[in-house]
Each structure stands twice: as structure tokens, then as C-alpha cells.
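Milestone 3.1: sequence recovery, worked example.
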């Protein structure tokens, strides 16, 4: 099922927390999840972001949903702080 965001909304898949460093050190359980995600779809009024972009967003301004065993977030374009 494809999600079509409306107006200035962006649908993204949130990145999983890193559990191991590049040198192989195992990290403990993260208390906070990363505030970045990969964009899956954008609404018709979104101007500066496209599918595939990695975004940094305000953590508490999203709506989390689960469809077909995938966890998505929906965030307004104004709550996106930067792209990676």
C-alpha cells in the first residue's frame, strides 16, 4: 500500500539506532532514537525535499504509523530542520 501525503506533509521511514560502531564496538540500548529518516513520499506543496532524501526533523512533531509491518512517520515540511 502506498501512502500519499497531503499538502505540505512528508512520509519517511525512521532510521534504526546504531548498535555497533564502524570499528566493531557494541553500543548499549539507546534511550533516544535518531531524529533522522529517509523520505518515501512528499505532498504536492513540498518544495525543497524529494523521495530518497535523508532528513533531520523535530522529534516530537511527527505522527507514527505502521503499515504492512513497516514503521513510517509523517512530518510537516516546516518541522524538517535539514537534509543530509
Amino acid at each position: 500500500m502506498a501512502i500519499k501525503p497531503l499538502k505540505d506533509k512528508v512520509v519517511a521511514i525512521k532510521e534504526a539506532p546504531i548498535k555497533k560502531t564502524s570499528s566493531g564496538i557494541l553500543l548499549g540500548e539507546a534511550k533516544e532514537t535518531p531524529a533522522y529518516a529517509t523520505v518515501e513520499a512528499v505532498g504536492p506543496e513540498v518544495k525543497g525535499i524529494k523521495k530518497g532524501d535523508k532528513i533531520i526533523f523535530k522529534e516530537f512533531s511527527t505522527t507514527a504509523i505502521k503499515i504492512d509491518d513497516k514503521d513510517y512517520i509523517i512530518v510537516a515540511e516546516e518541522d524538517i530542520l535539514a537534509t543530509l
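Residues 9 and 76 are 4 Å apart (CA to CA). The first strand starts at residue 9 and ends at 14.
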